[in-house]
Every structure is written in structure tokens, then in C-alpha cells.
Design goal:
The complex is a heterotrimer. By secondary structure, chain B is an all-alpha fold. Chain B is built from two helices and no strands. The model of chain C has no long low-confidence stretch (mean pLDDT 95). Classes of the chains: A mainly alpha, B mainly alpha, C alpha+beta.
């Protein structure tokens, strides 16, 4: 028989019941947490989450094909399909999967913690429709071979106009969703649905939303001219200007992912061990540092470019003295520390790491979050800041070290955190308990370990000079031969095995989630089954 | 003593001794960071001079 | 908790381990920041981004003149060119080769002008693994000093179409 979930805060007697909000009836009280769920927000969290997982599947199949192609021993795809699938992988993962999930997270963060209804169903419909149409257009153009330009579409590489237009529509749809979020914050404040400051998760989501606006404005500034150029209205787009502005979209969107991921870390800490932020001022201050300083940080993609000065590179790439890196280092302490304090207060006080051993590792919501923190911090963060150092970048730019880095941050970090979140979203928002829980417990480890191996394989191969975005490191057919250190083949093997393992983890997550959404045991009227 | 207990129960008051494990973990992070960072500068110093 | 409204008086200064950690992290961030300008003045490997706007045909013309003035041989149909030590050299990136092959002297410094006649390309010199961006319309100058004799492949690591992975070049150092 299903047990009651042990979510500690439900039993907290000092917590008053939520005040009457502004939902005008379109609300249900969660059977597990006792928190109010706006039914409109719920519908659109579900829709966006489903679309997120669909695009994760497309991007994930692409990932497997790519890793089996770059592994010289396999070399699966022919050259044209390699570059095409690479384009598909980048856009479906970095843009569609992640942003659909983030819109869902935003809709959650402005409603349930604030006891508010979503501002507008109509606006949510418009947002979803634009994003969906945009994503379909972009995928159609890629898979029919009309935009083999990779995710960055650096001019003068040229794609079909519908490629640029699809991205613009998706970006506009995202902005509309972000507007719905801000409008909800406004009406919650206006209707006094909560008393005091917003909860930390909402604060983090707000930081993400602010950075999203900046990112999307850069997107408009780069994709509108690119679109006009693709239909011959504009004659020329300067490649330096394109790169500078594109990375204003490209890097800022990574910082949205960081803000969302960190907010999810705090949320998962609450849900799995009942942790509380140790010092709200510190956590919120760190989010403010993200907003203030990440918006001038795109230079680390341009460190070996011509025509941008060393001074600008140094100032910008360090996010003005690395103050945004400081923010990440702060969260890197406060997130585990809040978990540690919660567990110690529950009695797990033995030695330095007794709390860690006693943590609920069987809970995939917890293990996914913990792995995400570790992978993002130790691998993603350290490599990113180092490779983004103005001069060190000379050794790394466009080598496989770069994907080695960002698969640790955005995949091992953000995506794994979102997977961990799903282990609560599906039971609490879709109101179905997960099928095959034993498999679910293992999934974050499959995926996390796979990504670590993938990242290591890429990083070491790249340190020997192996380029990224490159179909054939044997250089067959070239007139001037070139080759790499023999150990590169070993690292490709590590990358290949890691990629296969990660794909297995990804597929497991998708299958479990999809099967549960359609066939999982409904838990309406009772708390979710405990992990 | 009662007052001290009440203050401790306020939202997550951190005590110097409350999160030593996490402190150890982030110190490990910092050490790893420093090592990786300087190893990369060393690798850079070994390639051809360029401006 | 993170999902609840915080207590009214949540604004307080960090204390204990948090304060120590924030202090340590801040110091480390400042060290990293200062490392870059320090190396800019004291270090021997930098990316200054020295560049000049150039029309594609004008750059191609300069490359041709450079090749015809200093050509000393040919390899696999590609001219081998020996610029004067301490002088200007030219390297042209196009789909899908690096033109010409440069023959340099160890210990000498050269100003290498790089540009593209079509798409963006990535100059990647092996096995030192030195990487720079090469853009059409911009003459990217790197002031380079080879340190040891040998044959050094140039790869392209910026996607430039279907022949991208066959795009190689060479620098020979005596």
C-alpha cells in the first residue's frame, strides 16, 4: 500500500494555513503539501513540461547519433547528416527542452508559493502556441536540410528564412510567458495574497525571468537582421557584430539556466529533506549578483576574436571581477549547507559527513539534485571559469574542451536538476505516482555518471587539440595530413561509453515520465507515494 | 536558555558549527579550482609566444 | 523553507562558515581577475584582437603579392612561402584550405595577417593547440614567435560547410 510521503514541512505546526488568495475558485489544495495549486497554472505547467520532454527526446536521439559519429571507431553518420543532426541537437536541447521547462517552472514559482492565480489563461495560450509553432518551424527547416548552420548560425553561413523566423517566434512566445509571470507577481502583490517578501524559489525565478528579458532582447537584435538578410532585404550582416550580439543571447540564456537550476536546488532541498535557506539575505544577494553582472559577461565566447579589445575582453569576461562567479560559489555552499543543517537537526549528526551518508539517496529527487550540484560545481564551474580566462582560452577555443565544459553545466547541472524536479512535478502536478520506482531511483545515477564520463572524454581529447563541430579527425581526403596524439582514441572511447550511458539514463527518464503521465496510479485525494 | 532556543528556531539560523561538512566540501572545491586554474596557466606558458 | 514566505526580519549579515566562505571566494575571484591584466603585461601569450577592416578582394590581392614575392617552393600543389624574419606574413582561409604554407625561422617573430575570403574559420595550430578566430572582412593580426623547428599542422575548428573537416594547412619552422 502506498505510504504517505514524508515531506517534513507538512507537519510543521508553526506554519499557518495559507490565507485566502485571488484564485476565485480555480484552485485545488495539494493532498501532499497542503499548498494551493492554481488550476490554470497547472494546465500550462503540464503542457510546457510535455513539450519539454518531447524536445528532450528529439535532442537525445540526436545526441546518441552524434556521439557514435564522433567516436572514430564507430563514425556512424555521414558528414552532411552529422552537421545537420548537430544543429538539431543544439537547438532542441539548449533552447527548446530547457526553455519549455523553465516556463513551466516560472508558472509554478509565481502561483503556488504566492497563493495566487496565474494572471491570464489567454496570455498563456498565446505563449504556448508561439513557442510550439516556432519549435516546429525550426525543426522542420533543420531536418529537411535547409539550415545546416549549427545552433550559432554564424554569418555568413546562411539558413532558410523560416529557420530564423521560427527562432524569433519561439523567443517572442517565451517573452509572452515571462510577461505572464511578471503580471502574476504584480497581481499577487496587489491582491495581497501573501504577506512579506516572496519565497526564495520565487525570488530565484524572478532573477531568471529578468535575465531572460535581456537575453531575448539580444535575440531580437541579432535574429531580426539575420532574417532580413536571409530574404535579401539587408545586404550584409557584419560577422563581428553578429557574434557579439548573438552571444548576448547565448550566454545570458545560460545564466537563465543557472538561476533556474539554483532555484530548483533550493526547492528540491525543501521537498526532500525539509531544508531551509540558512541566510535569506545571502541567497538573495547571490541572485542579485547574477542579474547585475551576468548581463555583461558574453565576452568569454569572443576571447580570441579579432576587433574586440583586450580591455573589453578582460573586464567583460570576468563579469566585472567575477562577481557572478562569486554568486555561484556562494550557492555552492548554501545549498549543501541548508541540507546539512536540516539533516543534522533530524539527528544525523555523526562526524563530518554522517549527514551526507544518511541523506535520502534512494529518493531520485534528492540524488538528482545532489549529483547536479556536484557535477555543476566541480566539473562545469571550474572548467568554465578557467577556459573563459582571456589568455587560457587560446588553448581551448573551439576545441572539444568547450563541449566538455558545457555538458557538465547545462546537462549534468541544469537538465539533471530538472529531471530531479520531475520526480515531484509528476506526482504533485500531474497527480500520478511514478511507475517502476526502483528504476527511477537508478536513473539520475545512470545519467549523471554518463555525463561525467562524456565530459571527461571530451575535455581530454580537446586538450590534445581535437576540434569541436568536426566530422573527421583522421582528415581523410585532405592534401596536407594531420593527426593527433594516439591517446585521443582512448578518450573518445570514454566519451562514447559515457554518451551511451547518458542516453540510457535519458531514455529511462523519458519512458518512466511518459508512461507515468498516461498510466501511472492516480493519487488524487491522498498524498503522493513517498520516495 | 529559553530565549536562545527560540532564536535558534527562527528560520535556519546558522551556527559556526552547523555545516562543517559543507565547509569541507567547498574547501575541496576551492583547492581543485586553484590547482586546475594554475595548471592551465602553466600549459599556456609552454606554447609559442603570441600577442 | 525556500517555498515559503520568509520571516519578516530575514535581512541579516552572513555569519560563521558562510562569512568565511564568502570571504575566501571573494579573494579567489579577485585573484583570478587580477591574473588577466597581470599576464597581459607580463605573460608571453596573449590575444590582443589586433585587427583591421579589409575588403575581401583587397586581402586576397595582398596574399597573392606576398606569395609571389616570397615563394620558395610548393607542397601538394600549395605554395610554400618564406617571409622575412621579423616581417609581415599572410594566411588566407577559404573553403577549404589554408593558403599558403608558411616557412618560418625558430626564435623569430612574425606578424601574421589572417582573414577569410568567404565564411568564418578557426585557426588551430597543432600540437601546441593555439586557436584564433578568422573572419571575412577582418584582417586579424597575431604576432607569433615559433620556438622550435618542426612541421605544424593548421586545422580549421569553425564550421564552414561540408568540407570543413578536410581543411588543413601547415607551418614549417626551421
Amino acid at each position: 500500500m502506498a505510504e504517505t510521503a514524508t515531506i517534513p514541512f507538512v507537519e510543521d505546526p508553526t506554519r499557518a494555513p495559507p490565507p485566502v488568495g485571488n484564485q476565485a475558485g480555480a484552485v485545488r489544495i495539494c493532498d501532499t503539501t497542503g499548498l494551493p495549486v492554481c488550476t490554470t497554472a497547472q494546465t500550462f505547467i503540464r503542457l510546457n513540461a510535455v513539450m519539454a520532454v518531447v524536445h528532450l527526446l528529439v535532442g537525445g536521439v540526436a545526441a546518441l547519433l552524434l556521439v557514435l559519429t564522433r567516436w572514430p571507431a564507430v563514425h556512424l553518420l555521414p558528414a552532411d547528416w552529422f552537421y545537420r543532426v548537430l544543429t538539431a541537437h543544439g537547438l532542441n536541447m539548449l533552447i527548446f527542452w530547457i526553455i519549455f521547462m523553465e516556463i513551466g517552472i516560472l508558472y509554478f514559482a509565481c502561483t503556488t508559493p504566492l497563493n495566487s492565480r496565474l494572471y491570464s489563461k489567454g496570455v498563456a495560450v498565446v505563449s504556448f502556441a508561439l513557442m510550439l509553432v516556432g519549435a516546429l518551424m525550426v525543426n522542420a527547416m533543420i531536418w529537411t536540410g535547409r539550415s545546416d548552420v549549427l545552433m550559432t548560425s554564424y554569418v555568413p553561413l546562411r539558413a532558410h528564412p523560416a529557420f530564423y523566423l521560427g527562432i524569433i517566434l519561439f523567443a517572442v512566445g517565451t517573452l509572452v510567458g515571462v510577461f505572464n509571470f511578471f503580471a502574476t507577481l504584480y497581481i499577487a502583490k496587489r491582491d495581497r495574497t501573501y504577506d512579506g517578501s516572496v519565497p526564495l524559489v520565487t525570488f530565484g525565478a524572478t532573477a531568471a525571468a529578468i535575465i531572460a528579458v535581456v537575453a531575448l532582447l539580444h535575440g531580437a537584435a541579432v535574429y531580426i537582421p539575420a532574417f532580413l538578410w536571409s530574404i535579401d532585404v539587408i545586404q550584409n550582416v557584419d560577422p563581428v557584430a553578429y557574434r557579439v550580439v548573438w552571444w548576448g543571447l547565448g550566454h545570458q540564456s545560460q545564466q537563465i539556466n543557472v538561476c533556474a537550476m539554483v532555484s530548483v536546488w533550493y526547492l528540491m532541498g525543501s521537498l526532500t529533506v525539509g531544508s531551509k535557506p540558512l541566510n535569506q539575505a545571502v541567497c538573495r544577494g547571490a541572485f542579485v549578483l547574477y542579474i547585475l553582472f551576468i548581463n555583461i559577461a558574453s565576452a568569454h565566447h569572443l576571447l580570441v576574436d579579432p576587433a574586440v579589445s583586450a580591455g573589453w575582453k578582460i573586464w567583460n569576461t570576468s563579469y566585472a571581477m567575477y562577481l557572478a562567479v562569486l554568486a555561484s560559489m556562494i550557492h555552492g555552499f548554501t545549498v549543501p549547507a541548508s541540507v546539512e543543517v536540516a539533516l543534522r537537526r533530524q539527528g544525523h549528526n555523526r562526524g563530518l559527513f554522517g549527514w551526507l551518508a544518511a541523506a535520502p539517496w534512494r529518493n531520485p529527487g534528492f540524488s538528482g539534485m545532489a549529483l547536479s550540484v556536484a557535477i555543476f560545481g566541480f566539473i562545469g564551474g571550474i572548467t568554465g571559469v578557467t577556459l573563459g580566462t582571456e589568455q587560457i582560452n587560446i588553448l581551448a577555443h573551439n576545441t572539444l574542451r568547450i563541449p566538455g565544459h558545457f555538458h557538465a553545466t547545462v546537462v549534468g547541472g541544469t537538465s539533471l536538476a530538472f529531471m530531479a524536479l520531475s520526480y515531484y512535478v509528476v506526482p504533485l502536478i500531474f497527480q500520478r505516482d511514478y511507475v517502476m520506482p526502483k528504476l527511477a531511483r537508478v536513473q539520475p545515477w545512470l545519467f549523471g555518471i554518463g555525463i561525467v564520463l562524456l565530459s571527461f572524454g571530451m575535455s581530454f581529447a580537446g586538450s590534445y587539440g581535437v576540434p569541436r563541430r568536426h566530422w573527421d579527425i583522421e582528415f581523410t581526403g585532405t592534401q596536407l595530413p594531420a593527426s593527433f596524439d594516439a591517446s585521443v582514441h582512448f578518450w573518445f572511447g570514454v566519451m562514447g561509453i559515457g554518451g551511451i550511458l547518458a542516453f540510457t539514463g535519458l531514455l529511462t527518464y523519458i519512458l518512466l515520465t511518459v508512461i507515468t503521465v498516461f498510466f501511472g496510479e492516480k493519487n488524487e485525494g491522498r498524498p503522493m507515494r513517498a520516495w | 536558555m529559553e530565549k536562545h532556543q527560540f532564536e535558534k528556531e527562527k528560520e535556519g539560523e546558522a551556527d559556526l558549527h552547523e555545516a562543517p561538512g559543507s565547509m569541507a566540501l567547498v574547501l575541496l572545491l576551492l583547492v581543485s579550482f586553484v590547482i586546475y586554474y594554475f595548471a592551465n596557466w602553466k600549459a599556456l606558458a609552454d606554447v609559442w609566444p603570441v600577442r | 523553507m525556500a517555498i515559503h514566505v520568509p520571516p519578516k526580519d530575514w535581512f541579516k549579515a552572513p555569519a560563521g562558515f558562510e562569512r568565511v566562505w564568502i570571504g575566501l571566494a571573494l579573494v579567489w575571484c579577485l585573484v583570478m581577475f587580477l591574473a588577466m591584466p597581470w599576464w597581459h603585461f607580463k605573460g608571453r601569450q596573449n590575444s590582443t584582437g589586433e585587427a583591421y577592416k579589409v575588403e575581401i578582394p583587397a586581402f586576397a590581392e595582398r596574399v597573392n603579392r606576398f606569395v609571389s614575392t616570397y615563394k620558395v617552393g610548393e607542397e601538394a600543389g600549395i605554395p610554400v612561402v618564406q617571409p622575412p624574419p621579423g616581417g609581415e606574413a599572410y594566411l588566407q582561409a577559404s573553403m577549404w584550405r589554408w593558403h599558403p604554407i608558411l616557412k618560418l625561422k625558430a626564435g623569430q617573430t612574425y606578424r601574421i595577417h589572417m582573414s577569410s575570403t568567404d565564411l568564418q574559420h578557426g585557426f588551430s595550430l597543432q600540437p601546441m593547440n593555439m586557436n584564433f578566430q578568422v573572419l571575412p572582412g577582418y584582417d586579424h593580426v597575431i604576432t607569433l614567435t615559433p620556438t622550435a623547428p618542426g612541421t605544424y599542422p593548421i586545422l580549421c575548428n569553425e564550421f564552414c560547410g561540408i568540407g570543413h573537416h578536410m581543411m588543413t594547412g601547415r607551418i614549417v619552422v626551421e
